[in-house]
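Tokens in:
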């Protein structure tokens, strides 16, 4: 009996050591490249680069376009997520699969698809050009590229949040009101808010970091379509300090946003 307990304890210890070792290796693989960026940044240079017009322009363009694309994603993805989570209809599997494609599609392919659809000689772009609307090379093209690639994060996270709501709570709410809209606003959305917020934050962060679809569809025009990832790519061969500064900003913003959400979410779980 004693030998069995010792054997089980040894097995558990060995298993924990193995799992922790694997986890640390993965953390190191991710952390070391990120840390190398910070180790190659000189603080005085960061302050100097924050007054660099090209850096400031890319930062503002990235923030504005990411915010707009996130808002657009919320408007379309959250209702779609609710529909997919709560309704059955013909073709649902096809629609669900179609909406998942941007998550696995290479960004370069996404950019090419947008270009072939909305360029002046594209399927829809030819009609738009007749109205004097040229999308490639505009800030709107950046927003479209970001929305195409990143909206799926809001959609997936929101759908999972809606699907995991205890249906008994919804049924109880129906005892007090027959208004589906009121139930949605006062019960369903508050219960799903953590998943929705997480999806929105991931959409915003993904939009901030979008590169492939943007450069193919919108181009890399300083002051117009050049976001931070595009500026990093351009400045790599011209000004490594500026490139590093933008990289540090992107990493810091992404890490901070995720930490804030995780801390907020953990606090809510502890209170409940």
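Residues out:
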């Amino acid at each position: 009996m004693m030998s069995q307990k010792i054997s089980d304890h040894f097995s558990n210890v060995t298993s924990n050591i193995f799992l922790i070792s694997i986890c640390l290796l993965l953390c190191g693989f991710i952390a070391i490249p990120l840390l190398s960026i910070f180790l190659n940044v000189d603080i005085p240079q960061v302050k100097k680069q924050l007054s660099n017009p090209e850096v400031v322009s890319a930062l503002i363009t990235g923030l504005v376009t990411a915010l707009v694309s996130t808002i657009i994603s919320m408007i379309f993805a959250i209702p779609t997520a609710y529909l997919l989570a709560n309704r059955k209809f013909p073709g649902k599997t096809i629609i669900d699969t179609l909406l998942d494609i941007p998550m696995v599609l290479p960004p370069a392919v996404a950019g090419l698809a947008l270009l072939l659809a909305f360029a002046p000689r594209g399927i829809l772009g030819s009609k738009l050009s007749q109205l004097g609307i040229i999308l490639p090379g505009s800030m709107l093209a950046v927003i479209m590229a970001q929305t195409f690639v990143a909206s799926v994060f809001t959609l997936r996270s929101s759908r999972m949040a809606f699907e995991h709501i205890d249906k008994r709570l919804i049924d109880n709410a129906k005892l007090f009101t027959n208004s589906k809209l009121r139930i949605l606003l006062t019960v369903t959305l508050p219960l799903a808010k953590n998943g929705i917020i997480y999806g929105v934050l991931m959409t915003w962060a993904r939009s901030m970091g979008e590169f492939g679809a943007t450069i193919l569809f919108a181009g890399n025009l300083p002051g117009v379509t050049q976001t931070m990832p595009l500026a990093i790519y351009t400045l790599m061969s011209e000004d490594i300090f500026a490139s590093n500064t933008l990289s540090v900003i992107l990493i810091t913003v992404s890490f901070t946003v995720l930490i804030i959400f995780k801390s907020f979410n953990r606090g809510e779980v502890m209170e409940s």
